[in-house]
Amino acid sequence: MDYSILPMIPEHWPALREIYGQGIATGNATFETEPPDWQKWDSSHRKDCRLVAVETCNQQNMLGWAALSPVSGRHVYRGVAEVSVYVGSAARRRGVGRALLQALICEAETAGIWTLQAGIFPENTASITLHKSFEFHEVGLRKKIGMLNGVWRDVLLLERRSPTVV
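Given the sequence above, the corresponding structure tokens read:
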């Protein structure tokens, strides 16, 4: 599969929302139970560090997306962000997630982000493996941190400290 990584624009959201829904359907991607509309999603994510993977020969075919959310509005945490990476079901296991995360890390460092964090359900071993391959390390396990569909879920907290942003 030949694909390109591009900046996300609002017009991408309908296709990306569908990919988000595919992640939600796995039951192991997020506590969300339905993908939000553009306004809600846009307001909770950084305006920079938003990427999409598209087929090179058909850039209307969205394969996945990655973006950062601020972890806090406090100035002291301005360089800390939470990672989201979603890959459409038809594009999984083809390197799309790896390419998105690698590009997102570069974007984050350019934007002055010194720490990236990811909260991942322990059952999502593919995502954990992906993040660890980019030097995310386990900070801890947050036991029964939230309920999804009536079931308490644990979240593994991973973190990556930039070697270049000081």
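The chain has a mean pLDDT of 96. Try to locate this feature in the token string yourself.
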